[in-house]
Write a structure and sequence with these properties.
The chain has six helices and no strands. The protein is mainly α. The protein has one domain. It is elongated, with a radius of gyration of 22 Å. The two termini are 29 Å apart.
Length: 175
């Protein structure tokens, strides 16, 4: 895999950079989601509040991941939003299950305990989402971006080797 700066980027190191960006973008959205769910759950059933927040958070996080986390540099496509939504359904199921178990174990857990359980379940689901997003949702876009960088480098090399003002035709004749 190549970086935009021209150097080779080892896939493990690239994965760590992607994961750090994922934690910053997705973790920020996740923390905000925890507070939003708690605020909405005061007025709505918890599962509905979680569903609403999950939809909004997934849209926002997918855009952030497309633009910053996985190096796409642009807006997420509808395909990427749909695939990301599929992984969000799994995350929703994990957080709902965690809260259900919590309420089975403790009749009236406090807000701090609920937040701890919700955020822990979200973090666990987030690890799985990272793998899905990196390996499936944004994988093709990453390879296209790397091909674009390689193509741009080839054009730059070709322009430096061609006689001034000759363009691509002059390069072909010069070769």
């Amino acid at each position: 895999m190549e970086s935009a700066r021209g150097g080779k980027r080892h896939s493990a190191a690239g994965g760590l950079v992607d994961f750090a960006r994922f934690v910053l973008c997705g973790g920020g959205v996740g923390l905000a989601s925890g507070f939003a769910v708690a605020a909405l759950a005061a007025r709505l059933p918890w599962a509905l509040a979680n569903a609403l927040v999950t939809v909004v958070a997934t849209l926002l996080a997918t855009e952030l991941h497309a633009r910053f986390t996985f190096g796409a540099g642009g807006r997420a496509t509808w395909r990427q939003h749909l695939q990301s939504a599929g992984s969000a359904v799994g995350a929703y199921a994990v957080t709902c299950a965690a809260m259900l178990v919590l309420h089975l174990v403790l009749v009236r857990p406090g807000a701090v305990v609920e937040q701890a359980v919700y955020l822990s379940a979200s973090a666990l689901a987030g690890l799985a989402r990272f793998a899905v997003l990196r390996l499936v949702v944004f994988a093709r876009h990453r390879s296209q971006a790397a091909a674009t960088v390689r193509h741009a480098r080839l054009v730059a090399v070709a322009e430096t080797r061609a006689p001034a003002g000759a363009g691509l035709e002059g390069l072909c004749r010069a070769a």
